[in-house]
Amino acid sequence: MHVEDLLRLDSLELTLLWGESALLARDVSGVTATDLEDPERFLQPGELVLSGLVWWSPGDDDAKVDRFVSALRSAGAAALMAGEETHGAVPDVLVDACREHRIALIAVPAQTTFRAITEAVYLRQWGDLSRRPTGHYALPENVRTELAGLLAEDAAPEALLDRAFAHLGGPVCYLLTATGREIARTPAAPHLPAHQAVRELTGGTGTSLRIDGDCGPYDSWHLHLRGEADAPPRVLHDIADVIAQYRHRLDRRQAAGRRAADALVTLIDTAATDGTALDAALHTAGLPAAGPYRVVVASSGGEESEAAVGALTEALRHSPGEPFAVGGLPSGEAVAVVHADPGAETRTALRELWPVLHGCRPQAPLHAGVSALATAPDGLDSALSQARYALAAARAEAPKDARVTSVGDLTTLGSLLAGVPAEVRAAFSSRVLGPLARAGSTSHRMLLETLEVFLAQHGSWARTAEALHLHVNTVHYRIQRIEVLTGRDLSRLDHKLDLHAALLCR
């Protein structure tokens, strides 16, 4: 649909105040109504912007209007449709600003509602039933018309499913994500736990149909009918098309939230973060200004963060009671800031879901690290460091698999060292073990084995000799050789710890 198509609809009684032919030929991707002074972050390229001009008063200076129109241009708006009801007419200063910034301006009379314009756009964009032959559809015309109206009203997916399947007797049908998260279900459908939903989606039971859309492996949507299909395949495809249009519009709205989340996590990753800026970023991302918070960092083995962002976002959506924002960093990490319930255990919930997520893309590793609670915004940078360390530990423990590690899991020396970068671990091990670390000879391998057993037996000569089937004197000799080669005294606790850590770092 193009901007000029709306001007041809006599029922809307629209008036073009300014707009060149090239601007009127622009494609329309959607509609957004706003009366914010600076709506840029809420707009998507190609959208029609409906405004009642409540944000403007006759006494305002021209700069206020210029900022508003400049925001539309920066966001790539297709046109501005300004209502006449508030001020009786569209002010000349707005016409001048639109001309300067090259934004098509259309006046909307008082008798034309914004809802009528929205419906006109989406009826045209999502089917315009009068222009398509009836035989093209399997859904009855009255159902198609009602569904188009529900889409224009931004109805919930439950309402769409209910109306779409009502003429079929209301079968048991679900709208599920690839991880089993329930988005909607028909009134006859009981709640379906996520793990059971995944089994049904992947087990070939019932009838499932993937919804078309720009989605990743973790958040794809699926229509799922239990048991024998109660709807002909063409009907299901028609219903799936309606759900796809709903998903498309939802994704456009959520894109603004993603940009806000990217800005938030980038700010937290900055060494010196201004408190006022951080408070503003939290607010823009939809998070409360007061804690507690928890930070989760995820990676999927690549340099791009999109897959990890998709996985982490989908996982956290399984816990709708905790507000969160997930953004990506150039390092390839996905970072989530979760407004956490102190009594909830984010790690446990993620750990239960992580194998399901990994099953959606088994060829790629999937790791996550979870921080401790941060009581206030100024603790988010420390929480990010904790989560990154836990992520490194998860990678070290299962480099090609899927693993969630919390900073609370780092309760042993081995788990703590797992978060140290591999290059640092290797350098430490080589330095402490000395020649033993670089040994290729049988004698040095024998000494390493003796050292491992001696430390495992808590420095007991007798138990070490028994475990290795050696005489105690032989154990004494080998330990002396180890002390000479490493420069460590194995009668000292700190030196024992050094060597134990070096062995763990190999």
TrEMBL record:
Transmembrane intervals: none
Domain Purine catabolism PurC-like, chain residue ranges per copy: 5-122
Entry-linked InterPro entries: CdaR-like_regulators, CdaR_GGDEF, PucR_C-HTH_dom, PucR_C-HTH_sf, PucR_dom
Domain PucR C-terminal helix-turn-helix: 447-504
Gene3D superfamilies xref list: PucR C-terminal helix-turn-helix domain
CdaR GGDEF-like domain segment(s): 277-392
PANTHER family: CARBOHYDRATE DIACID REGULATOR, CONSERVED PROTEIN
Family: Belongs to the CdaR family.
Protein name, entry field: Transcriptional regulator, PucR family protein
